[in-house]
Design brief:
The chain is an alpha/beta fold. It has 2 domains: 38-139 and 293-332, D-Maltodextrin-Binding Protein, domain 2; 141-291, Periplasmic binding protein-like II (D-Maltodextrin-Binding Protein, domain 2, 3-Layer(aba) Sandwich), CATH 3.40.190.10. Helices cover 36% and strands 20% of the residues. It is built from 11 helices and 14 strands. It has helices at residues 3-30, 65-78, 96-104, 119-127, 157-164, 192-200, 217-226, 236-239, 280-285, 304-316, 319-327; strands at residues 34-35, 38-39, 54-60, 82-86, 110-113, 131-146, 155-156, 182-185, 212-213, 230-235, 246-247, 250-251, 291-300, 331-332. Strands 3, 4, 5, 6, 8, 9, 10, 11, 13 and 14 form a 10-stranded mixed sheet that branches. A two-stranded antiparallel sheet has the order 1-2. Helix 2 (65-78) links the parallel strand 3 and strand 4. The protein is globular. The termini are far apart.
């Protein structure tokens, strides 16, 4: 074979190879991006396919209430045969823990949580012959509320821990007035927010004897509004825009205090005409010191309930779902 023919064959082989590689790259680029183990959720609810038909009960976190209010009706409008029903436990208060327990006991199709799954919950699922999957869909922060007239520049996380473990009892120990501190909290059995707070702020320590247990956030905020020395923590969307209490900056150090609201602070006498807005930039960047993710908890057993949970999370991860999450006062995860 001549050198000319060999050269021609090599050139043709190179062109064919380049063509195959180019086609492969084009095909790869055209494929949907992977998100939480599935294809890209798309931009709108209408783009999500393969929704199961029927009534699907779900439950869990009270932190999720604003999201449920914004999202569920919008889903029903687009997909009326994919019906959703929030279900409370028959005993005890609703919350992340109770929702996961109901899911484990086959009382729910899927659940909502404001904390991540615990090892014991994974183990309980395994003992029942299935697994649990947590899918993050939003970012939330914990905000601290005090009486509007309490003059305090803010708190560090360690100072907040000292308040709730009973190591400090007067605001004058924290650059505030000579005034008894009255810390309020819901019971640790009643929600993911409290469990998250104990684990991440108190570092596993128990509440001090000074902590006053109140059943709900609404009642707690009323207590703080009536007590000059009161303090309470909750999901930021629940408290930042309130008219009867104010939220305070938090930081890892006194030099790094970051407000949970957008500055400048809107005086409460302008509320409700004007309300403080969530500092979503600081939440998203991690500059604010107490943030967490919100999860859809799915039971992986190959049944229709698993499909419902995966579809629900996919709907929330669409652009439309993320916009509704923002409207509800939370920070979008993408």
């Amino acid at each position: 074979m001549s050198q000319k023919n060999e050269t021609t064959i090599l050139v043709l082989a190179l062109l064919i190879t380049m063509g195959l590689v180019g086609a492969g790259v084009w095909w790869f680029i055209r494929q949907p991006k992977i998100n939480n183990g599935g294809t890209s959720p798309g931009k709108t609810f209408a783009e999500v396919q393969n929704l199961p038909e029927g009534l699907f009960s779900y439950g869990g976190s009270t932190t999720w209430a604003p999201i449920r209010k914004e999202v569920d009706q919008a889903i029903q409008t687009v997909w009326p045969k994919f019906r959703l029903r929030y279900t409370e436990p028959t005993a005890g208060a609703p919350g992340s823990g109770s929702g996961i327990k109901m899911l484990l006991n086959d009382q729910l199709a899927f659940s909502q949580s404001s904390r991540s799954l615990k090892n014991k919950e994974y183990e309980q699922a395994e003992q029942r012959g299935f697994s649990l999957k947590q899918i993050p869909v939003a970012i939330d922060g914990i905000a601290v509320a005090v009486h509007p007239e309490l003059q305090i520049p803010g708190l560090t996380i360690s100072q907040l821990k000292d308040i709730y473990t009973g190591k400090v009892s007067n605001w004058n120990q924290l650059n505030g007035p000579d005034l008894l501190i009255k810390p309020y909290s819901r019971s640790i059995q009643e929600g993911g927010t409290i469990e998250f707070f104990v684990e991440n702020v108190l570092e596993g320590e128990e509440f001090g004897d000074n902590v006053i247990i109140v059943p709900t956030t609404t009642q707690s905020l009323r207590k703080v509004a009536d007590a000059l020395g009161g303090i309470y923590y909750a999901s930021a969307p629940e408290v930042v825009s309130q008219c009867t209490v104010k939220t305070i900056p938090l930081g890892r150090t006194v030099e790094q205090l970051v407000p949970p609201y957008q500055e400048p602070f809107v005086p409460l006498d302008q509320c409700p005409d004007k309300r403080n807005q969530l500092n979503d930039t600081a939440f998203e960047s991690g500059e604010y010191p107490i943030t967490r993710r919100l999860f859809v908890i799915v039971k992986q057993d190959g049944q229709e309930d698993e499909q419902a949970g995966m579809i629900y999370s996919k709907l929330l991860l669409t652009d439309q779902g993320q916009e509704l999450i923002t409207k509800a006062g939370f920070v979008r995860i993408h």
